[in-house]
Amino acid sequence: MSTFLVDIKPSARRTNGSVGEIIRDQGSRHQFNTRADAEKWAAKLAVCGRATVWIRAANPSDRSDIDAYLLGRYTPSPLSSQPRTQPKMAVASETDGVSENDNNNRNTTTEQYTLSMTQSVE
């Protein structure tokens, strides 16, 4: 029976917490019956770890026994069932007049601006 050997690359470990746990518990090389089985595994990891990981065939010039690599990136997984929320910023501005006397006893008015920002997640 032929096997399909996958090596986990550092990009998958850095971007997906579930992949990091698998490396810690089971190592970085994983054996599957077929590429389709490896791709199903990657899809489950993308959902559990909430970060995109995928199977990419090893380069033809790669002389190792690896058939493919598990890679990752920092963009959210389209397979994730958990919605991602983006914080919304609200900006408020106020203007206050501040009276001051200069050295020649002239009354000057300076406008003071106050900028406040609040963050909310919807």
Describe the structure in your own words.
- The chain is an alpha+beta fold and 122 residues long.
- It contains three helices and six strands; from the N terminus they run βααβαββββ.
- The chain has helices spanning 10-15, 17-26, 35-49; strands at 4-8, 29-32, 53-57, 68-72, 87-101, 107-121.
- The strands form two sheets. A four-stranded mixed sheet has the order 2-1-4-3. The chain has a two-stranded antiparallel sheet with strand order 5-6.
- Strand 5 and strand 6 form a beta hairpin.
- The longest helix has 15 residues, at 35-49.
- The protein is elongated, with a radius of gyration of 27 Å.
- The chain starts with a strand and ends with a strand.
- Residues 80-87 have low confidence and may be disordered.
